[in-house]
Amino acid sequence: MADRSDVVIIGGGQSGLATAHAARTMGLDAVVLEAAGTPAGSWPHYYDSLTLFSPARRSALPGRPFPGDPDGYPVRDEVVAYLAGYAAALDADIRTGHRVDRVTVTGSGEYEIGTAGGAALRAPMVVAATGAFSSPHRPGLPGLESFTGTVLHSADYRRPGPLAGRRVVIVGGGNSAVQIAIELAAAGSRVTLATRRPLRFLPQRVLGRDTHIWLQRTGLDTAPWARPLLAGGKGTPVMDTGAYRATIATGNPDRRPMFTRLDGDQVEWADGTRERVEVLLLATGYRPGVDYLAGLDGALDTGGRPRHRGGVSPACPGLGFAGLEWQRSFASATLRGVGADARHVLDRLRKGPGPVRAAERARR
Ligand code: FAD
After folding, report:
1. What is the pLDDT confidence band of residue 364, given thresholds at 50, 70 and 90?
2. Global pTM?
3. For residue range 74-87, what is the model confidence (pLDDT) as tens digits?
């Protein structure tokens, strides 16, 4: 007989831990299944120099402040340590080394959550909180199959060392693209950011205070209606103190309109000129890694992405998500934003029909 709980949370990164915290405050019995050996999410795999774009006071999960200077910007390893401490203090049932490979609905109408190791759990509610880092987006680029240089995704990038001094083209204009470009240029690489649209920047500080403080105070951070204002279909802007723009103005890295094709060891630019490039780095983002939901009718769209309203599945009663980009707001996929979303989702799930009651209704 499979283990049973009120809710199974898949993924033990910040989103899964915030959901476990919400479950505890609601008196729900939760089990967290985490594939890795420690519950720190994907943070240990991000690049070495990563510094948070939000200050410590705006980078905490519910119930535990981020330690250190509240106005300082924590580095990657401080986030790893914070999450490990958060998980320990939660005193929740977190089972590491458990990779979920399928979720199905049983004959009695509950969810059964199966792991690669053969374990199975049952619950009326499931929250998928597995992030996106396991699923890097690699767009089809004309001539990519013929390109003889090195092709990397930003998910593979840790430090400039192996790429120092080489000719690098980075595809993408988001925070990671710009930060990696500047780091590589400082290490002696010649770097170009190839983007479809001009780069967009958001000032890191306004009137002497971090922008995240203003975003939170004005409500823009958590307002679903703020999406057109903050993204406007033009992608997430790059947070910048002014230093990034100043470095780009020096010409290395530079920004050019997206190339038209790759050919052998060459890139052909929009103006028809060609150039030898050694490394193509795709900073083209990620897609939610939720393949294990493929067996649930209506959980995913035809592209394999979660179908949801504010993180709640309209097709599968009792199924929710945490940590999706723009799940409910600008802050959804961030440390400071995921807690409120996790609470919202669990609250909706426990008040909703749930798979058991849905199955009962269907039988009547
Ligand atoms: P993840 O951290 O990816 O955690 C998902 C967890 O699920 C992992 O532990 C994984 O092992 C586990 N898992 C995956 N599949 C399975 C499975 N099938 N079964 C069981 N477990 C599974 N946010 C900020 O707030 N501030 C920042 O400055 C910031 N900078 C960022 C910089 C980069 C380069 C990136 C990529 C993101 C950044 N983010 C930042 C965004 C966001 O906070 C992070 O991506 C964060 O790691 C997302 O947390 P998560 O828990 O949703 O996903």
Report:
1. very low
2. 0.92
3. 999 999 999 999 99
In contact, 156 and 37? CB cutoff 8 Å: no
Do residues 129 and 9 share a domain?
yes
Pure H helices in 129-276: 175-186, 211-218, 227-230, 243-249
Residue 65: both structure tokens together? 């402040």
34 lines ligand 1 (CB under 6 A): yes
Domain span at 276: 138-199+235-282
Q: Which atom of ligand 1 is nearest to the CA of 16?
A: 51
Answer yes or no: is pLDDT of 168 > 90.
yes
Is residue 350 within 8 A of residue 126, CB to CB? The reply is no
* Same domain, yes or no: 78 and 191: no
Residue nearest to atom 41 of ligand 1 (CA): 334
Q: How many CB atoms lie within 10 A of CB 150?
A: 15
pLDDT for position 180: 97
100 close to ligand 1 (CB < 6 Angstrom): yes
CA of residue 47 to ligand 1 center, whole Å:
13
Mutate which of 94, 130, 335, 341 for ligand 1? The one with the most ligand atoms within 8 Å of its CB, which is 130
